[in-house]
Amino acid sequence: MNDKPLPLEEMNTRSREVFRLVVESYLDTGAPVGSRTLTRAMSEKVSAATVRNVMQDLEYMGLLGSPHISAGRVPTQAGLRLFVDGLMEVSDLTGDDRQKLDATLTGDGDVTSALDRVSAALSGVTRGASVVLTPKTETAAIRQIDFVSLSPERALVVLVFTDGHVENRLFTPPAGLTPSAMREAANMLNATVGGKTLADLAAGVATEIDARRREIDTLASTLVQAGLAAWVQEPGEKTGRLIVRGAGNLLADSDAAVDLERIRTLFDDLERKSDIAEFLDLARTGEGVRIFIGSENKLFSLTGSSLVLSPYMNADRKIVGAIGVIGPTRLNYGRIIPIVDYTAQLIGKLIAERS
């Protein structure tokens, strides 16, 4: 079998039509397609034997496969990729889908709450599982920082971001911490934060402490460094939080026990954030919506799943996160692509307006 299927332009008209009909039928029903079914759909009148010969050629090229000896054909992963890249027609976003997605931006709350709503709506509209990689904390602008003592061994650093959301994290404060040291530390940071990101603060905090050495005591400077370290050095925070909605949609569409087990494996990986940093890397390598079919993305190599993914940007046109839809390889790609693209634009608008 050829490793590289022939480009579409090297296939004759009949082969292209047979190939397109097989793929479209499979994406619609998930079932193998037989030659007799195809003869009724062909634009020219041909025999079932002729169609079978064409299907055999397409199978030899690596574009079609046979699940069973006597069954019809289904597209291979290579066939799906060729179809998506060369034959697929992308539909327009429907007014109903647009309205459901737009409605997610009308609620109150911070960006994280809005992203939760967007993710739920995207799952509902596509009937797949939605994934939203939220902006990592280091790239979000900060409005205010506070320190809260819980006990001699435990304290909170509280960050209020310019988009309104609040996050806090536990850390171990320096021994002998006093209320005045906590106030000094917070005052020093808030005097200089001025919409900076956490990464900006972490990079400049040593210089700032050195410049203001006479104004703050040693405990306060140690507290500042320990508090920021609780954020910057936290394991697993190289990327933002991953929001997953609609896992049940995938389970509902799968009858075979092997499919159910594969999907459970997929979501176990997602919950463990396995390869999640790769989501953003994948989104950064290309413009607009990208499609990963089956093993093209190592996260899904054992699940028979596809990912339709798009980055989204902040007001500075910097990619800060990604949004996508996970589904079986027989996703309705032509419908899903404009939905994911529009949702990514909505999120970018949301972040720009609330920053």
Automatic annotation (TrEMBL):
Similarity comment text for this entry: Belongs to the HrcA family.
Descriptive protein name: Heat-inducible transcription repressor HrcA
Protein's GO biological process: negative regulation of DNA-templated transcription
Function: Negative regulator of class I heat shock genes (grpE-dnaK-dnaJ and groELS operons). Prevents heat-shock induction of these operons.
InterPro entries, alphabetized: GAF-like_dom_sf, HrcA, HrcA_C, WH-like_DNA-bd_sf, WH_DNA-bd_sf, WHTH_transcript_rep_HrcA_IDD
PANTHER family membership: HEAT-INDUCIBLE TRANSCRIPTION REPRESSOR HRCA
One function term, GO molecular function aspect: DNA binding
One protein family per Pfam: HrcA
Keywords per UniProt: Repressor, Stress response, Transcription, Transcription regulation
Annotated Heat-inducible transcription repressor HrcA C-terminal domain residues: 114-337
Transcription is among the record's keywords: yes
SUPFAM superfamilies: GAF domain-like, Winged helix' DNA-binding domain
